Amino acid sequence: MTDVPALRLCLIISSLGSGGAERVLAQLANHWAEAGHHVSVLTLSGPEKPIFHTMAQEIHLRQLGVAENTIGIFAKITKLIHRRQTLRTRILAARPHVVISFLDTTNILTLLATRGLELPVIVCERTDPTAHDPGLFWRLLRRLCYPNAARIVVQTQAVFSRLSTSWRKRTIVIPNPIPHPGNAQLTPPPLPRPVLLTVGRFTWEKGHDLLLGAFSRVTAAHPAWQLAILGDGPCRSALEAQTETLGLKDRVHFMGLVNNVSEYMFHADAFVLPSRYEGFPNALCEAMACGLPCIAFDCPSGPSEIIRHKIDGLLVSPGDISALALAMDDIMGNPEYRADLAARAPEICDRFSEHSVFSQWDSLVCETASPSA
Hints:
- By secondary structure, the protein is of the alpha/beta class.
- It has helices at 20-34, 73-94, 104-113, 136-145, 157-162, 165-168, 208-218, 236-245, 261-267, 282-289, 321-332, 335-344, 348-351, 354-368; strands spanning 8-13, 38-43, 60-63, 98-102, 121-124, 151-154, 171-173, 195-199, 226-230, 252-256, 270-273, 294-297, 313-316.
- Helices cover 39% and strands 16% of the residues.
- The strands form 2 sheets. It has a 7-stranded parallel β-sheet with strand order 3-2-1-4-5-6-7, sandwiched between helices. Strands 10-9-8-11-12-13 form a 6-stranded parallel β-sheet, sandwiched between helices.
């Protein structure tokens, strides 16, 4: 968008933690700020939530402290009214030509906050909305609010194909931008090799329990291999208990949240994505960009549009622990096969280049911008 007048853009998200949606927002905000546009970023969380991703100094960042933490329908409604008004005030102060919101419940709140303002709002679904249920309260609000969105962005053709006709009329598919990881000198993390790596928030949909089950089936055949899990979340204690039950305490390493994910990826020997459902998994893309042979469940959205089966990775039947164990056995027991897959994996950086994806976003924003904002 360097050849158009500067625009005022307001990007909204729940927080700027370590997730994939947060990373994409940071990439877009930095790209537009570098191009000379006025970029405001609003987070629903407050200053107690750390900023995980680097943001350009030119970006106007405001942490509103209105993240939802209530239980019960009446408390939710009362809090929603307060959150809507706070967000509306900040959006008006930014005077944007376009508002861009990320993640389902934040999208709904943004559409409520901009109601009657005649501001175009682009809402971005970052997972599979046909698989992810935000709950009855938010599901009903989404049905009421999404018709007011100027455009809806999803990440894969698979998700687009499953949307209702009313959604598809305003929906565009834009994948995540995949940057080249660079060739910086890296300090190897403290892990014995060979290492099987996975990255993801410890929640049910990420399928770490399935991965532990599959790994337990191949440890005897591959006694030197370790499993490293990067991330954290509400299922951590259950996963640690499962590790103990399976007798894997000395083979599985819970590394927590780390800032140097790429260092772990460059140090690892293979990567597994065991998700039950996905949007467009950044961790899988980053692993391929770092030259890792990858295995993923062929869940309804994401991996099949990223991995080219038996060319730069392996896809296995969704949720099938036995199939996952067999694929892991193939990768772990055959260094030549790992090398062949790894050699093609970095081509993902060209298939979903930052330049190409940013160009799609630039076109969408220019087409959507309100000239009178």
